[in-house]
Design a protein that fits this description.
The chain has a two-stranded antiparallel ribbon with strand order 1-2. A two-stranded antiparallel sheet has the order 3-4. A two-stranded antiparallel ribbon has the order 5-6. The protein is globular. The chain has helices spanning 7-46, 49-77, 79-82, 85-119, 126-155, 174-178, 183-212, 217-251, 253-260, 294-300, 321-350, 358-366, 370-386, 406-436, 442-460, and strands at 160-162, 168-170, 272-279, 284-291, 389-391, 395-396. The model is unreliable at 443-451 and 453-470 (pLDDT under 50). Helices cover 70% and strands 6% of the residues. It has one domain (7-247, 326-445). Strand 1 and strand 2 form a beta hairpin. By secondary structure, the chain is mostly helical.
């Protein structure tokens, strides 16, 4: 069945499938852990039960998303040994300790306090429980710190020496390895994307419930908080993304050329290609819709600044242009849609109509999954744009794979697809079911229960219920 397929392609497809599936859950749990910390902090500060109601509402969703992220990540990590043993052998002395630091500092922190966060509200007291929630939020960020440091080193390797057997060995300072040139930009860009993804998901859920009942206080609170976050973070993310792009131009120019669709060099100003169909064989973009010289203005801050094209890069060193070109446009397009949603919500807030404009709520609901799509598109832009290298400029992907046959890789890929969609599909379905449940005001419910016997006694003694009480 798989004999006609290339083993390297199947190994890459398997890793791309598993990492894409995995990446969805951390991008949600990182932001959701911080959101839970904010909710619990607001409850302790204001004493309003509404924040506690929302904390309990989202805590169940966080627990499931966190568990699915852990399980999918463990499965993914085994592929380094099975499918990419050459890469693991050569880069292991550098990336192995960084991955170990992630487990020792982040995963143990998360796992240690997660149980207290989930089940300790009535056992350890409010302040200690809040501290546990903060530790889980900090742990998710530390985890992202180490994982992105590893990934960034693969893009911009520094601080290493080459050993006698061709291995990458740590040099004089681990600081040079950890804080490699692209790491600060990638960390801020990815962490901000996680917060924005969570804000859109929370906003979509809030919008769903507002469309059903505009008076629901919990829905109003979550929608207001989410739209405020989108309004603030979306423009920051666009700015950070631009800075990350300039850093990529400096260290990985071929990736930017593929993102921009620049097959040819432009000595007197490069156009910004909005849309088109890249053709790597003919080295052109068919049906290109472009704005003259705008790419030079964005990347070099000068209209007539020269920009090199892929004609300056050897063909065997070029990334797949079509995937990078379109993934980048999906990410950027959704980013500006998020900016528009934030601006729309600000207008509604200023006019006192944040909970009344149903079309805003419909737009927020439609944009609920946009963050997940954007982070996957960004991940494809980054990782496919690094090709044909695993360690950029030093170790090719073709030289990193294990000596496996295509049928074995194809069979395992098929098994991953079936199992992932079955197991994680059920998990996602359950998360959506929890999101569809109306967030209730427990304080009001308790008050209604307390009033019930009084009202019943009044009716039994001949009293007539007032308007709105019947």
């Amino acid at each position: 069945m798989f004999e006609g397929l290339d083993a390297l392609f199947l190994a890459r497809a398997q890793f791309a499938f598993t990492v894409s599936f995995h990446f969805i859950f951390p991008s949600f749990s990182i932001g959701l852990a911080s959101y839970l910390a904010v909710l619990e902090g607001m409850w302790l500060w204001t004493g309003r039960e509404r924040y506690l109601d929302l904390f309990r509402y989202w805590l169940k969703i966080f627990a499931i998303a966190f568990a699915m992220g852990v399980v999918s990540g463990i499965v993914m990590s085994y592929q380094f040994g099975t499918n990419w043993s050459v890469f693991s052998d050569k880069a292991g002395p550098v990336i192995g300790p960084l991955m170990a630091y992630e487990v020792l500092t982040a995963f143990f922190l998360e796992a240690g306090f997660l149980g207290v966060m989930l089940f300790g509200m009535e056992r350890v007291g409010r302040k200690l429980h809040f501290a546990a929630t903060l530790m889980v939020a900090v742990g998710t960020f530390i985890s992202a710190f180490w994982i992105l440091s590893v990934n960034s080193w693969m893009h911009t390797p520094t601080g290493y020496v080459i050993g006698a057997n061709g291995q990458f060995l740590p040099g004089d300072s681990w600081i040079d390895i950890i804080f490699n040139p692209s790491f600060p930009f990638r960390l801020v860009h990815t962490a901000t994307a996680a917060y924005l993804t969570t804000a859109l998901a929370v906003g979509g859920v809030g919008a769903w419930h507002l469309l059903k009942d505009r008076t629901n206080k919990q829905a109003r609170t979550m929608f207001s908080m989410a739209m405020g976050m989108v309004m603030v973070v979306a423009p920051i993310q666009i700015f950070v993304g631009d800075m990350h792009g300039l850093n990529t131009l400096e260290h990985q120019p071929a990736k930017v050329m593929a993102m921009e669709g620049h097959f040819q060099s432009h000595p007197d100003g490069a156009p910004l290609i909005l849309f088109g169909i890249p053709d790597s064989e003919q080295e052109t973009v068919h049906y290109a819709v472009e704005i003259p010289k705008l790419s030079s203005l964005i990347l070099k801050h000068e209209w007539d600044a020269p920009l090199d094209g892929l004609d300056t890069v050897a063909k065997e060193d070029r990334p797949p242009v079509g995937v990078v070109f379109w993934a980048f446009r999906i990410m950027v397009g959704l980013g500006f849609a998020m900016l528009g949603l934030g601006a729309w919500s600000l207008l509604a807030r200023l006019r006192g109509k944040l909970y009344d404009w149903s079309w805003l709520h419909r737009a927020a609901l439609a944009m609920g999954p946009a963050g997940f799509v954007a982070v996957i598109a960004g991940w494809f832009t980054t990782e496919v744009g690094r090709q044909p290298w695993t360690v950029y400029g030093l170790l090719r992907t073709a030289d990193s794979a294990s000596p496996l046959d295509a049928p074995a890789l194809g069979a395992s890929l098929l098994a991953f697809i079936v199992v992932y969609f079955a197991v994680f599909g059920v998990g996602v379905w359950y998360i959506l079911r929890l999101m569809s449940a109306t967030p209730h005001d427990k304080e009001a419910a308790m008050q209604r229960q307390a009033e019930g016997p009084i009202r019943t006694a009044g009716i039994a003694s001949g009293g007539i219920p007032q308007d709105g009480e019947g």
